[in-house]
Amino acid sequence: MPHSHRASSLKQSNKSHKSGKASKRSINRQQGGKIQNRVGVKKRGLTGAASKAKADRMHMAKQRREASKDKLWQQRRVQGRLNVRNADSAIVPRVVGIVSLSDREFELEKIVKDFLVDSADKKIGADENSSAVTAMFSKYKKEGNVTFLSNTTAFRSLYKIEGTNDLNDEDASVQAALDLARVCDVIVFLLDGNDTNNNSNAVPITGMSIGDGSSTRTSTTHVQQDFDHLISSRGDRVLSAIKAQGLPTPITVLVNFEGGEDEETMSLNSCQSLKSIRRSALKKKMELKKYLSRFATTEFGENAGKVMEIDIPEESDEDEMKDDTAKNMLIVGKSRKMLPDALIGKGEDPYPTRAAFIRTICTMSASPPKWVSEMPRPFVLSNNNALGEGFSYDKTSQELRITGFIRGKMPFDVNSLVHVPCVGTFGVKQILKSNSPTLQRRKGKINADDGVSDILATCDVNEREPIEMFANPDALEGEQNLIGFDDENYGYDDDGVVEEKQDDNFARPAGWNDYQSAWLDAIKGDDDDFSDDGIDHGELAAELNKKKDKAEITGMEMDAEDDKRISAEERQALLNQRKKDHDEELEFPDEVQVDEDEKASERFARYRSLKSFRKSYWDPKENLPETYASVFHFGSFRATQSDIMADMRDIMQAAEAKFNEAIEKSKGSKDGDADIGNMSDDSEEDLLEGCVESGTYVTLVLEGVSAEAVSRISSTALLVAVGLLPHENKVSVLHMGLTETTQCDELGPNDMPVKSKDNIIFRCGWRTWQGRPVFSQNNLNSDKHKFERFMPTGGSFFASSVFGPVTYTPCPVLAFRRTNTGNTRFIALGSMIGADVDRIVVKRIVLTGYPTRVHKRHATVKYMFYNPDDVKWFKPAEIVTKHGLQGNIIDSVGDHGTMKCLFNAPIKQHDTVCLNLYKRIYPKYSPVEYTDENGEVVKKNIVVL
What span, in angstroms and rounded, lies between the C-alpha atoms of 938 and 706? Predict the structure, then answer.
């Protein structure tokens, strides 16, 4: 009977193909990145984890919106801070810095500043000799208060004083621009549009690249070839330095001068039609705008590359244009610089480009560099001296008074130290309340009393940090130069006496610890190194600590010695051979040749051998130099910084709570609520004791300011007083992560390479000083870092260790070097790593020898040493080869330094035997001599300006 299939409940049922749904990938491909509006489409309900995830996304989006609103509201609070004491609104002006990148500097900046200030409803300090002009644009209310600073008048006089030759004009312009960028909310870079036809004087800028990373001067792109000369070499230096330090909100502005150029073009080309002249001029202008857009995007980023233009008329043609409506409507080749009278409304600016620029700087979101705005360091920018309120000095009481607004998000603590760039660090005696020029009362006018009316805070000397930078501990009193150390980290017994481990096997030199004495295991049986009783009585320690004679100083190490021990002829010879030594260091790194008439054991007595550079232990407190006794040691720099930042956050939160309480109290007084006055507690009051809130117009009274320090200040300059955090006035060993500059001040073929312990000027945040650093590699997997004899080039990152004032991170670092001609070169840029005295920088030298007779793992090595005593001295050390073998010295052969060695594998005849020796390297001070008030020459290790 044939088989037949019968259906049952066990019949297989396959899943049908889901043709009604599309994959997420296909849906996203169809949408093209757009979100379709599904109006009228029935939404499917989400259950379980999907609905929860959607709710979380909605909450996160709401939190981001609220955070953005709070940030904007906080900025507006700082701009218009409510003064609770007298119910006045002290408006903090926005600071706008003007920097010219073209050849014309002073003239271009002055013309633009005067043109912008001319449209203001009220001008404060608009004088020919004024360093800052505050303009009030009533159309924008609180946002319409702007202080204009130019690079040539704000801080230039601090570096280019009359009668002195400290810096040339170009170097002074770079340093002044760096000072200007620290205090500005908006920085405006000016480009002279009148130089578009001056291609004969064009100078190519090899360091600047736009778009594809190549030089802007190319032969294929017409736009780049025509407009490269708009940025001068000085402008390129200024721009590179400001970018390395940190940019405020940037704006690139093209300045067009109307009038003469177009009329001359029309007269020379009278045979052409007006339409063709206009077309060619507009085409050229479009190419210029395209070039500037690419320049701003490349230099400042896509989101910060704002480009604008300002059309400035000639003064002689301004009155004529007001009567000629047709001429006002169109200028050949330029945008409209002035509207006709029929289109000008009441209170409107007749110049459209100027009105657009002012509207932008008044309403845009702007802030100083991040390291200024985010760090809890308040600062005061002095007012214009033309108003008689900038700064004043009393020679009798040695008090310096600086008047201005408190800026930053932190309240100003009267018990903190204050640093004034180019002047010094001082203590605050009092903070006095002053009436701001922008002060506006709610009812009535400002009082006639413009002087000091109240004392906001007085310093408590017992609470203030000491002004001394160096440590001078008294050992008899138990004082130490330690910060953040705990006693439990040390081996103290119950009676407070330091426990010392005794080793009865053999005596060791004075000052040696256990692992140092391991050297004596291999040589303690030699009678040559010990006395007859087998005990060292200090002979070995005296030999190791013996200073080198002048004749023993080699050319490679000559600059590491004291300057007094090197004559002018020797230093000149060293400078002449610096480049040759640099080339040899690149070809044969760390290799040192021993002469036949010298002993390696004497020349390298301070060096030691390490079995493993990464794993071998090195005591960071061993045999420290005398200079380390006067600097401060941190137990943990990161922990100390975290504690201080936490305290600063508590103060900021207390200040914000107090401000909110004052707002609610002012509202409650109107509504009849009387219970809001008890909102703050005693802890907040304790935190804010001696603090003055940000946005207050005050006068800082600094005490202990010498006349010699004030003599460096020009009467027309602006001063900045920045509050220092705890421990920031103490000197320690700072470590910075740097890299060589590539786009600014490239070293030419005749310039000398930068060597370790050269005099270098460090510009670290708000402070500047001179030091002699040591360069090293920044090893992440080792507690020891290899010393670099020369500053690494080619874009390599390296660490620089130098004596300097403690600075908390993040903080930018710029390194400058004085050349033989007196100019300053921008050589390196980077950021602060921290302060750590225990960071070990180790210098390595390599002694090389060559195998003459080889038998499997044995070899006879020559030309490393030239006497058997050296072989015996370095016998405990391990040797390596360039092919990766390891070995040891077995014995000395003969009387000429030949030695027999054993390796862990058969050695090749063409291999090279190396002996690696190490020594710890320390930075040095760069003393500065100056004459005090009494005419005496004073020498200081560090002068912070």
Answer: 14
Which H helix or E strand runs over 731? strand 731-740
457 and 431 in contact (C-beta within 8 Å)? yes
Q: How far apart are CA 303 and CA 249, in angstroms?
A: 10
Cα–Cα dist 62/72, whole Å: 16
Strands 774-776 and 439-441: unpaired
Q: Are 131 and 119 in contact (CB under 8 A)?
A: no
Please give the single-letter amino acid code of residue 48. Answer: G
Q: At what angle do helices 352-363 and 106-117 cross, to 10 degrees?
A: 90
Distance CA 336, CA 258 (A): 10
Find residue 787's DSSP bridge partners.
Answer: 776
Residue with tokens 């060293």: 574
CB 731 within 8 A of CB 837: no
Helix (H) or strand (E) holding 940: strand 937-940
With beta carbons less than 8 A apart as the criterion, state whether 650 and 689 touch: no
Distances (CA, A) of 489 to 387, 476, 492, 638, 860: 57, 22, 9, 17, 49
Assign 758 to helix, strand or coil.
Answer: coil
More confident residue, 870 or 208: 870
| Residues of the chain by 3-state class (helix, strand, coil), percent to 5 | 30, 25, 45
Q: Look up residue 312 and give its two tokens.
A: 């400035």
Q: How confident is the model at residue 329 (pLDDT cuts 50, 70, 90)?
A: very low
Name the residue type at position 794.
G
Instruction: Choose between 851 and 333: higher pLDDT.
Output: 851
Strand order in the sheet with 80-83: 80-83, 88-91, 439-441
Q: What is the Cα–Cα distance from 544 to 546, expressed in whole angstroms?
A: 6
Distance CA 211, CA 273 (A): 37
CB atoms within 10 A of CB 653: 12
Q: What confidence tens digit (pLDDT) does each residue in 387-431 have?
A: 557 788 888 888 999 998 999 888 999 999 999 998 889 999 999
How far is residue 723's CA from residue 644's CA, in Å, rounded to a whole number? 14
pLDDT tens per residue, range 192-222: 877 655 444 434 343 344 444 443 433 333 4
Q: Which of 581, 553, 547 is nearest to 566 (CA)?
A: 553
Look up residue 76 and give its two tokens: 């507006």
HEC letters along 529-588: CCCCCCCCCCHHHHHHCCCCCHHHCCCCCHHHCCHHHCCHHHHHHHHHCHHHHHHHHHHC
d(CA 877, CA 916): 9
Contact 229, 199 (CB under 8 A): yes
- Cβ pair 194, 104 in contact under 8 A: no
Instruction: Write the CA distances from 234 to 68, 175, 203, integer angstroms.
Output: 39, 12, 11
Rounded to an integer, what distance in angstroms lies between the CA atom of residue 693 and that of residue 411? 4
The two tokens of residue 875 are 């016998």
DSSP E strands, 182-235: 186-192
Tokens of 882: 């360039």
Nearest residue to 130 via CA among 715, 711, 710, 712:
715
Question: One-letter amino acid identity for 675?
Answer: D
Q: Please tell me the number of Cα atoms within 13 Å of 225 on its side-chain side.
A: 5
Q: Looking at the predicted structure, is the pLDDT value of residue 850 above 70?
A: yes
Q: Do 172 and 159 meet the contact criterion of CB atoms below 8 Å apart?
A: yes
**Residue 518 DSSP code:** G
Can you tell me the distance from the alpha carbon of 242 to that of 129, in angstroms, rounded to the nearest whole number? Answer: 26
Distance between first and last Cα of the chain: 112
Evaluate if residue 358 carries a pLDDT over 80.
yes
In the three-class reduction of DSSP (H, G, I as helix; E, B as strand; rest coil), residue 759 is classed as coil
Tokens for 870, please give them: 């050296």
